[in-house]
Amino acid sequence: MLARLRERSDAENGFTLIELLVVMIIIAILMAVAVPTFLSQKNTAVKTKATANIKQVVNAIESCATQLPSGGYTDATAGGLNCLTPATLVALEPALKSLGTIGTASAAPAANQYTVVPVGSQGYAVAATIVDAGDNMTFIEHHSSTGELYKLCGRNMAPTATTSGPVTGSKTCLTGKW
Length: 178
Fold this sequence. Notes:
By secondary structure, this protein is an alpha+beta fold. About 35% of the residues lie in helices and about 20% in strands.
């Protein structure tokens, strides 16, 4: 009996073309479902990281401001301490070094860069730029000198912006705000 089982004909060896096609179709269907889900989760993770890092920079700025006698973000009497300069923020909060580039600019920052910009006499804006669908998307938390708070998201925006239009073709900036 064992001898007969070992003696298979050539037609019984391997898989048929139909079996291989069925397996390929199943794999294609699984890929069609899994890949878009994975990509949307990746965009969500990048947005969450950028907005969390903005919060970390804002917390460092506010912590620095509590150390100044004037209660503002700059103070000439405290040795010229300026809470809105990257060097001061990194010195007070060493964890900010891990964010990468923190700079001061008035134009839209480069991808994966965080920007701190003074706004008026007692305001500031913190911006983070990420790459989304090949474009630079900027997330901004803008604290105006009159006390208003703006949270914006847009394509290639200046860090001092207070409004943004609708953003088309973006997976991370669907409503223009975050």
